[in-house]
Amino acid sequence: MAKGVVKMTVSSVTQKLGAIDVEHVGRTYTDANGNRIEALQDVSINIRPGEFISLIGPSGCGKTTLLRLIAGLDKPQAGELFLDSERIKGTNHERGLVFQQSNLFPWETIENNISAGLKARKVYKERKQEIAHYIQIAGLKGFERSYPHQVSGGMAQRASLVRALINDPKVLLLDEPLGALDSFTRIELQNKLLELWYERGTTMVLVTHDVDEAIYLSDRIVIMTPRPGKIEEVVEVKLPRPRARNDASFIALRSEILEKLHLVSSTKQIEYYL
Amino acid sequence: MSISEQYIQDKSFETNEQVASSQPEEVFSKDLHGLREKYWKKPSSIWPLLQIAPFIVALVVNFVFPTVQDVSMLPYRIFLVAVITFLMGAYVLTFINRKIKIITNHKSQFYFAVGIVLIMWDVSTTKSNFFPLPFFPSLAQILQVMVEDYQSLLISTLYSLRLLVFGFAIGTVLGLTTGVLIGWYKQWNYWLFPIIKVIGIVPAIAWIPVAMFIFPSSFYTEVFLIVICVWFPVAFMTSNGILGIQKSYFEAAKTLGGNERFLIFKVAIPGAMPSIFVGIYTAISLSFATLVISEMIGAVAGLGWYINWAKSWSNYAKVFASIIVMAIVFSFVMSVIFKIRDRVLIWQKGLLK
Q1: Is A220 helix (H, G, I), strand (E, B) or coil?
Q2: Fewest Cβ atoms closer than 10 Å to its Cβ: which of A61, B271, B275, B323?
Q3: What sign for the dihedral angle of Cα A41, A46, A50, A54?
Q4: How many Cα atoms occupy the beta-carbon half-sphere of B331 within 13 Å?
Q5: Which residue of B has its CA nearest to A136?
Q6: Residue B349 Cα, gap to closest chain A Cα (Å)
Q7: Could you give the dihedral angle defined by the CA atoms of residues B311, B315, B320 and B325, in that order, rounded to the nearest 10 degrees?
């Protein structure tokens, strides 16, 4: 609870925005066989500044497509997207993206990977003394000169997290960043993510397969369905923070969400008994 | 790296000073381990000493048996003494340095065989005339020619090197530029790639007649030929390398706020470097061949020219001398390029294994 209070004050002091408005967005792909696939159909959602929101759903539901549209790596065919009422056109450092694989540049050292954003934006000289701080945040002190393949998966993912954060993005887009990690490292990184979120009040949009992860981290969970990709429901997570995974309300919410994902269907069970 | 080690490293941000201080030692032992993998011959106490013997025998044979050819033996004897001194020095150092010990041990059998070959060579030429002159000169005679004619050999070497450096530098710059253009821009790819593909297949020396009337001097002609044979493989492999880079690296660079310039210079070119060096490697081999052939045809100096000139005098000792110098110079150039490659691609170390 105390951490939540800290978060409120920080975000109000820095006045950092980061509201995303997705309005009636549609995106269709043509696959290798020439079939049209509706990745997104008439999707609308308003993400509040400083909110932690998760997109969850079976594969093919368009959650990664939606994330790439927000990042500006892809263009919608219908509808519009806005960041703080400004229309999203192309990529920008204000919308940072962390990929499923660490995706660090293999030819740069950890330090140069972390500072890549500063160089990309030509603010390296002014801000290079901050790099050490970010290396510290990532817990990578002593590994500045290592190359990405020389460190573990968790370390690489922490590096790519701060690589995006060093640009002070208003929104951090997370495309299953913890999906490829073992469960131990995963939990450690979830806590790191929360810690950074409390401190900075950055809007977080997380794509995940993991219901537990979504509940543990999010303010709201967006459940999506495939073919065509649509928002099925938005679930508000009202559990107090810090959250405990074995809490009764946590478990209840998990089964509720799983139910909505049609993975565990209580209605079917009832039919069964009848 | 085992999983437990990884875990230790992963957790090491809490105790990173310890890890950092223990790193150099670990690297050193890994280095020695790598050495043993590369120099795999079984450790022996005899071979490092035994390898010196045939060279001493060669020296004795050279002194004891009468010489039937007209040749100055001094350069050959100095050469043998130098080799013996070198091997003895290496043997002494094996007691001090572990690295030298491993390498000397590994190479000793080979040096032993080289010594035997030298004895046989000397006996079958200067001592017996079994292989007749002028086609099969002795090593003594080749060395004698090298010493006596060192000035023209040196000038020829410098000529060839100058040609190689100019041609190679221009060719690489042009190759990189065209490679980036056709690898990055669709329009450039559309217009230039077919030309590169077709012209690249034709050996550079086929252009000799054309180049000879286009360029004012033989030097420019030769530079042109080397540029041609460097340009296309480098361009081809550069564009290939850029097209082979994972899209997600470009996407990451974009979301970090990188503009096109950043994408080209910080992602496309470094990402294509492994492929670029394959192109450079191909190019350097081709340019050695082109260099020698083009010098044989129109040049006024150079190692290729030297071979041709010596041949017309039937001085095969000079031909062999030139070949030996070529072998030394070209392997030196090669090793410089490998050094540069290892430096540039240091990030790949351990990635491909």
Answers
A1: strand
A2: B323
A3: negative
A4: 5
A5: B13
A6: 9
A7: -90
Distance CA B144, CA B142 (A): 5
Are A116 and B256 inside 8 Å of each other by CB? yes
CA distance A177 to chain B (A): 13
| CB contacts, 8 Å: B262 with chain A | 119-120
Locate B305 and state its tokens: 């020219």
Q: Are A176 and A209 in contact (CB under 8 A)?
A: yes
- State the burial class of residue A238 (Cβ atoms within 10 Å of its Cβ: 0-12, 13-18, 19+): exposed
Between B15 and B166, the higher pLDDT residue:
B166
Please determine, for the modelled complex, whether the ipTM score is greater than 0.90.
no
Answer yes or no: do B350 and A152 touch at CB < 8 A. no
In a domain, A11, yes or no: no
Q: How much is the pTM? A: 0.82
What are the domain boundaries of chain B? 39-134, 150-348
Backbone angles phi, psi at A177, to 5 degrees: -70, -20
Residue at A154 is within a domain? no
Best residue of A74, A152, A191 to probe chain B, by most B CBs closer than 10 Å: A152
> For B150-348, which CATH superfamily applies?
MetI-like (1.10.3720.10)
Does B267 contact A155 at a Cβ distance shorter than 8 Å? no
Nearest CA in chain B to A72: B255
Distances (CA, A) of B76 to A104, B154, B307, B328: 57, 19, 22, 18
d(CA B260, CA B270): 14
Q: Residue A254 maps to which CATH number? A: 3.40.50.300
- Cβ contact, residue pair B248, A101, below 8 Å: yes
Is residue B129 pLDDT above 80, yes or no? Answer: yes
Q: Which of B23, B251, B347 lies closest to A73 in CB terms?
A: B251
Domain assignment of residue A51, given as a range: 16-92+211-273
Contacts with A95 from chain B: Cβ below 8 Å: 255
Quote the CA–CA distance of A129 and A135 in Å, as a whole number. 11
Report the sign of the C-alpha dihedral through residues B65, B71, B73, B79, in that order: negative
pLDDT digits (tens, 9 = 90+) for B135-181: 899 999 999 999 999 999 999 999 999 999 999 999 999 999 999 99
Q: Which of A42, A53, A59, A65 is nearest to A231 (CA)?
A: A42
Of B10, B14, B267, the CB nearest to A105: B267
For residue A134, the chain B residues in CB contact (below 8 A) are none
d(CA B80, CA B87): 11
Question: Smallest CA–CA separation between B275 and chain A, in Å?
Answer: 13
As for how many domains chain A has, the answer is: 1
Q: How many CB atoms lie within 10 A of CB B203?
A: 14
From the list B344, B346, B340, B333, the residue with the least C-alpha distance to B168 is B333
